[in-house]
Fold each of these.
Amino acid sequence: MKASLSLLHPVAVLAVLTLAMSSAGCSKSPERPLHISVIDHINMVGDHVLVKGDGEHRAEIAPDGALSIDGKAQTLSAAQQAISRRYYQQAMGVGQDSVAMGKAGAAMAGQAVSTAIEELSKGQPEQIGKKVEAEASKLQARAMKMCDRIASLRGAQDELRASLPAFAPFAKIDADVAKDCRR
């Protein structure tokens, strides 16, 4: 029985951590719209993307690509607005992917615990790792797709910074973020 418990412990820890992570970054109260942290300085609030710059500076991007900085609407060319809209779409996509991955991770943790219990009750603890790894590889594939989206977000960020210098203080996603995502 001691060996069975030692196999179950890492699975239980994984379940608790995944459930905690799946609820992190999201908040909703009746008087405030859903708030999801996308990346460190980027948040989804309702249907807008809020980007924190240096100090107290804030940029807000609407679904149509309209951009305001510190509450002042920016006059954008059609090309700049298209880039801003692409930034918005990628940021929203990363946020939505994050929520979906959290839910999938929580489901996987629950499945891992069930698998561990089932296989231990059958006396086949060696099957636990194989089954859990198969499910984990599906989650890893989702994570790699999200990394692709983060790279696309960085590309849109760099284009927006180049075409609109006022956005420079908000362009904080560097090459390491996309690289680190794949580790």
Note: Confidence is low (pLDDT under 50) at residues 1-30.
Amino acid sequence: MPPRQAEPTTEPSEERRDDDCARVRRILARAGFDTSSAEGDGLRVWAAPDGVMVGWVAREVLRPTLRIHGHEEDLSRFTALAGLREALRTALAVVLRDAGFAVATREECLLVLRPGTTPADGGGRARR
């Protein structure tokens, strides 16, 4: 019997994931967006199984709001930031699509897909 060939893996190597994250960070930096790791505040970039995730943690934006309105009962109306999050997601998606990536929404984040891939779970809307 001929030797059995190993099944090709669809999971990218750790090095490839790092390269993908670095590429997304460079593109965003050229457009004027500073980024951090998955644990940092602000605009986060981290590896995912089917691409690169981009999300935003608004702690620094909310800090002054909480200082001023912290005594009020319904803080959610001051801290929701839904419109600001949507505007940022839209701007980021345009930058990334202009760079040739397909981008899907995944909850509050963007999933930047590798060329020729679709989201593994079928979730989100992928658009080029």
Note: Strands lie at 42-48, 51-57, 102-106, 109-113, 126-127.
Amino acid sequence: MAEENENRHLATDASLLGRAFEFADRYLPGGLVTFYPEFCNSEIAARYSPRGKRSFGYASGIELVLALRDDAGSNLDLMIQDTPRISKEREHFARWCGQIVLRYHEASGDSFATLPKTLPLERLRRLHNELGEQDIEKCLQEIICRTTRHHDQTQLAIRRLQKSITQTDLARLSGVSLRSIQQYEQRKKDLNKGQALSILKLSRVLGCSMEDLIEPEHKLTLSEK
């Protein structure tokens, strides 16, 4: 029941951020080019946490945008009157972009502030052109798979991201501490030398074998020795 509630909150917040991205792209100067990094580096984004109840604290995407852009509220009526309609394709991309940004943040555990570099807007446009017609979860999983190929991720991180599970959720489901999971993924702790029971618990949650999580020795850093 708790997991169902969390998934429901996530879907609601992803939809809200999608509408916020659409509104910003339609009405704000610079559209998503300026709003995407501005949101990711805002206090609103920093306050959003994958732990506990998921909520931005706003009833609509418009409210979120207006809270972020104090100068937009007084000009809202004028913006709506003067701004031309955008294409359905552009509208769909903006909503898709907002949803993917939040879901990637949740699945990866990466802060919003890092996402404009990890998933720059032009890359998101290319991904949308290729994957945008697919179910949002399938899109997310494919983006995660492609992103992990560009980074020296641990096998644990790769498997977790492919399953769209946050570090917090993996800790809760496996019984392995969040701190240990973070240290394993940051290569500050050697999973190869971890307790067999912990590796077994992680592999069961991730749907893989224990061997799939073991790191080749040459990837281990001095901090693990």
Note: The chain has a mean pLDDT of 82.
